[in-house]
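Quick illustration, no need to memorize.
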Amino acid sequence: MGSAFRLPIAIREHLDQAVAHARHRHCRIVATVPRGGRSLFDVDLSGPVAILVGGEGAGLSPSVVDAADLRVTVPMEPTVDSLNVAVTAALLVYEAYRQRSTQSTLAP
């Protein structure tokens, strides 16, 4: 529960404003897509990133996906159609945390 108070969160009325704000802060824009993106486990999430996650049905709009620096897909079995958006977000945030934790323990 308390982790929400330790994460930087930008609240914007429009998604394009949020993306512009993230770019201004030197974040890479990562868009989740159900198929065809790079595997979650093959991308570098250790630096500043803004993770965009769309709803389970419609997902992110094509224009938002096209504007992203990176498209990421959570690997799933072929028979699985999609993941709940909260599960997808949790997996990406945890992978970013894992990569950053591993990186900090390896630093001199």
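The chain has a mean pLDDT of 84.
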